[in-house]
Amino acid sequence: MLDPFGRRISYLRVSVTDRCDLRCVYCMAEDMTFLPKKELLTLEELERLCGAFIDLGVDKIRLTGGEPLVRRGVMQLFQGLGSRIGAGGLKELTVTTNGTQLTKMADDLFKAGVRRINVSLDTLDPETFAAVTRWGKLEQTLDGVFAAKAAGLQVKINAVALKGVNEHEYDRMIAWCGEHGFDLTLIETMPMGDITGDRTDQYLPLSTIRRRLAERWTLLPSAHSTGGPARYETIQETGRRIGFITPMTHNFCESCNRVRLTCTGTLYMCLGQEDAADLRAPLRDPSVDDTGLRDAILSAIARKPKGHDFVIGRNHAPSVGRHMSVTGG
Ligand code: SAM
Questions:
Q1: Separation of CA 327 and ligand 1 centre (Å)
Q2: pTM for the complete prediction?
Q3: Which of 26, 48, 250, 307 is most deeply buried (CB count within 10 A of its CB)?
């Protein structure tokens, strides 16, 4: 499946719910209105749609959200998709989670075929964690992280770089990740959706952070790439990788291999653009068979734009009106 710029689309990210059990300040407003349940694709519909993407050459699927692990029955979807790993065409099934449900679900994720997960964790300080997530408890996420490790899952920690909030913590997080065998990715805040407050106050360019880290740690070039926005280096002292996702300071679109499906069946061809294709209508139309569904996907891919143009600044409306929880990052 090639887009108009010759990029092979092999990676589908699926937001299985817009709901979340946390309210991270940079991600959601405190009083979010969530979608009525009837708007959501059923788990069976999600599985059929993902199957159509796999048949078209997608070999990596990440379930995200909202918080994917709070969607009722979601393990059924993991199991269904997991059964397509290998001969079924899928190379990897993975998930991005805030970790709160992992003590209950890590073993089942592993059994379903998941081998690597991303856990979002912006701070190791309990008070900062409570402030950033508005109502989360650090201990619950840490218990989840260690349950995942014990289940055999490879864990990558994702931390959003927040000015004046966690910027003094990266050395500690690098050491902690090194101690427990986790990779770490730092992410610049992206201007998505209205949140309480001004994003300019949160924005911290990772070029500055990287320079600071390089004074303390030996950062070695790494060839590792996911075809995505992260640039990776290896930290010699810990042997673990550190990734930098810099949508604001580095344009990463030239190697983009992904598209994003929401829980209502809307396909976003670019995280930083508003254009989207409705796949729920063909999915629910009894006169549209699998070939018709495939055509709907292909015509959406034919509209994938060259890139995005995020702008952050005071008095700027968010570059993209929807919240990150719609597409899951
Ligand atoms: N609930 C899951 C989690 O916490 O990982 C999955 C969904 S969450 C929207 C996915 C990732 O997007 C998280 O790592 C979160 O920190 C990040 N994120 C949310 N809003 C963001 C923003 N405006 N800029 C950068 N990253 C953001």
A1: 9
A2: 0.93
A3: 26
